[in-house]
Amino acid sequence: MNQGGFREHWFLAADDLQLYVRSYGLVRPTPAVPIICLPGLTRNSRDFHELAIFLSSPCGGGHTVFSLDYRGRGNSQRDDDKSHYSIAIETTDVITACTHLGIDRAVFIGTSRGGLILHHLIGVAPGLIAGAVLNDIGPVIEIEGLLAIRDYLNKEPGEPTSWSMAPGYLKELHGADFPILGERDWLQMAKAIYRDEDGVPVPDFDVAIARQLLGLTAETALPDLWQQYDALSRMPLLVIRGEHSRLLSEGTAREMCKRHSGAVAFTARGQGHAPLLHLDGPRQAVSAFVTAITTAAPS
Asked: How far apart are CA 43 and CA 26, in angstroms?
């Protein structure tokens, strides 16, 4: 284990692209049920660092936690074929990661894009999912929220030009949706989003991923995923919604819980899309949920 409190692993995808995953805590052999964290569209494993440290600690339940970088993000290799930045292929990469790590079942935490991958995973490898946390994502995506993501990911004139500017830049961009965040939180977000290139913070993803959104308009019809959600709702489920989210509506979150009477609902106060799960409130909700599943699982 390195000084960051995690181990690093690399593995090959089905098309031989090199992908990256972090592990926290004691890496136990199966049948222990670990936690696998799946980040948002352009985000990476660093988003879950603080949460994984907590969940792998005695206070958080002492879990084994894995956090992935999808292809084209973080420490994973960029893909020359930009069409491969798709939910279907990223789902296959998640399955390949589980095979590489020797994981037969896991509790998945899916933030935004990660939750959409879970809606796909339930159709192709349902046995992998022991339980799911859907972080500010559901079977209906509000176009307003998606357009906001389109705009800030493709924002001109661009990103901050120094690390000292990065926290303030992010606060200016997202502060209205995240009034609960303090200066330390904005600094942590900057360290998660950007990599360092000669002292300059650079977004840690292939820009082709953000450009996929440029064709969206207010009139774009987004298909719903209720059929996939209904399959997902046959297992333990925690639905987290940011209080100020523009991607997951209150109405959709209510309908999700209506269709799954056993679902646990949690609102991340003072946060928008997508909630930071390591803050007080969300982290306790996640810890209680995953601990209930892992302690009930056979070992």
From this structure: 25
Confidence at 30, pLDDT banded by 50, 70, 90: very low
Q: CB–CB of 69/214 below 8 Å?
A: no
* Nearest one of 131, 137, 129, 136 to 292, comparing CA atoms: 131
264-268 and 18-24 as β-strands: parallel, antiparallel, unpaired? unpaired
Domain spans, the chain: 7-141+224-296
Which alpha helices (H) appear in 102-232, and where do they start and end?
113-124, 143-153, 166-174, 183-193, 207-211, 226-232
Neighbours of 162 (CB within 10 A): 10
The burial of 14, by beta-carbon neighbours within 10 Å (0-12 exposed, 13-18 middle, 19 or more buried), is given as exposed
Residue 50 burial (CB < 10 Å; 0-12/13-18/19+)?
A: middle
pLDDT surpassing 90 at residue 299: no
> CB-based contacts of 282: which residues, under 8 Å, 6+ apart?
240, 266, 268, 271, 275, 276
pTM metric for this prediction: 0.95
Read off the DSSP letter of residue 12: E
Do residues 274 and 111 make contact, with C-beta atoms less than 8 angstroms apart?
A: yes
Question: What are the helix (H) ranges across the chain?
Answer: 49-55, 87-101, 113-124, 143-153, 166-174, 183-193, 207-211, 226-232, 250-259, 282-296
The architecture CATH gives domain 7-141+224-296: 3-Layer(aba) Sandwich (3.40)
- Residues 160-200 have pLDDT tens digits of 999 999 999 999 999 999 999 999 999 999 999 999 999 99
pLDDT digits (tens, 9 = 90+) for 247-296: 999 999 999 999 998 899 999 999 999 999 999 999 999 999 999 998 77
Cis peptide leading into residue 157 (ω within 30°): yes
Give the tens place of pLDDT for each residue, 37-47. Answer: 999 999 999 99
